[in-house]
Amino acid sequence: MPSRSSLKHKLYTIIFEAETPAGKAFDVTILILIIASVTVVSLESVVELRRNYLNLFLTLEWIFTILFTIEYFIRVYSTPKPLKYIFSFFGLVDLLSIIPTYMSLIVLGSQYLLVVRVLRLLRIARIFKLTRFINEGQQLSNAIRASLTKISVFLGTVLTLVVIIGSIMYIVEGTASGFTSIPTSIYWTIVTLTTVGYGDIAPQTALGQVLASLVMIMGYGIIAVPTGIVTVEMSRTDKKMATTKVCPNCHQEGHPENAYFCYNCGYEFHR
Predict the structure, then answer these.
(1) Beta-carbon contacts of residue 162 (< 8 Å; ≥ 6 apart)
(2) What angle do CA 24, 28, 34 make, to 5 degrees?
(3) How far is Cα 16 from Cα 75, in angstroms, rounded to an integer?
(4) pLDDT (mean) for 79-104
């Protein structure tokens, strides 16, 4: 009979080490459950379907909730630092995805129907669990953090241009064309620059239309610049990330396969 520490290690390997065959099978199973659960929640919001298949939806929801509850407690049991997992992003998402169903048993009575609906709607948070299975998610997150300074400077420049263009449009068009104030003109500039174009305000003069055309063309470039900045950072991050090997002590990723120690906490891999 395996010891408790051996069992915890095996469970940890299956649940947190996605590169092992058992880990991949576990991830695929959880992935299917998440997609199925979110699909059920979405279908349940359709009045006609809810009226005809309410009992089926409730049964499926309890099945999903019980399975996700088991998963949650296994994660808490197997991780070396339970509190760190419980208060981590994914730990909170895992907890949030199972609480609403249990809360619906406590909140009873027609006067609390709205509260029950809100709680049940929170089950859609299970969709966030999908990010656990997207390896590029961490890479994208790192790239965005590394790009924040450049993007902030760029957005500051765009904001300045928006104020200037909005002020010019207010002077050129005036109140007769709907540009009743500088804030309204700035609103039009933002809508036009982002290529949304609601059409509630439109320039009438030739000069205003020329300026609007330039703003529209400029909008495509403004959308492309942040994308390019993040793409460059992702390319740099991709070169640094050699593998998805995870430290079992602190859960730090990105260690080479031949690493002997965790570069974050110093944990010895090959004990």
Answers:
(1) 186, 189, 190, 193
(2) 140
(3) 8
(4) 83
Which region among 10-14, 20-24, 43-47, 219-223 has the lowest average model confidence (pLDDT)? 20-24
- CA torsion sign for 17, 8, 247, 34 is positive
Owner of token pair 């055309």: 213
Residue type at 13? T
Residue 234: phi and psi, rounded to 5, are -65, -35
Task: Report yes or no: 11 and 74 within 8 Å, Cβ to Cβ.
Answer: yes
Per-residue burial over 69-87, b = 16 or more CB atoms within 10 Å of its CB, e = otherwise: bebbebbeebbbeeeebee
> For the domain with range 7-136, which CATH number is right: 3.40.50.300, 1.10.760.10, 2.60.40.10, 1.20.120.350?
1.20.120.350
State the fold for domain 139-240.
Helix Hairpins (1.10.287)
* Token pair listed for 251: 């859960």
d(CA 97, CA 124): 7
DSSP H/E element including 209: helix 206-240
DSSP letter, residue 228: H
Token pair listed for 23: 């880990």
What are the residue ranges spanned by the domains of the chain? Answer: 7-136, 139-240
70 band by pLDDT with thresholds 50, 70 and 90: very high
Report whether 203 contacts 192 (CB < 8 A): no
Residues 126, 69: contact at Cβ < 8 Å?
no
113 vs 120: CA distance, rounded Å: 11
Query: CA 227 to CA 145: how far, in whole Å?
Result: 13
Strand partners, 268: 261
